[in-house]
Specification:
By secondary structure, the protein is an all-beta fold. It is built from no helices and six strands. The chain has one domain.
Length: about 80
């Protein structure tokens, strides 16, 4: 499975340049499903930002990414 991420914040209708795109692979379970966790969710463990790959260790609530501001995380 490949994931396409955009570097930097975007607004509705913004134009994306090739230099803002990055592609990475996501490891899925046997069923091919990758679970994403939004900022503000109660969670515990290691998570990776879906946009920039920044890793955090969380004990209570998932924050926004401190590097890029993204709000989606996946277990990592």
């Amino acid at each position: 499975m490949l994931r396409l991420a955009v570097q930097g914040p975007l607004g509705k209708g913004d134009v994306v340049e090739k230099s803002q795109l990055s592609v990475s692979s996501a490891v899925a379970g046997e069923d091919g499903y990758v679970e994403f966790w939004p900022a503000g969710t109660l969670a515990r463990g290691q998570f990776s930002c879906t946009a920039c790959g920044n890793r955090v260790s969380v004990q209570q609530v998932l924050p926004r990414c401190m590097v890029c501001g993204e709000r989606l995380w996946e277990r990592g």
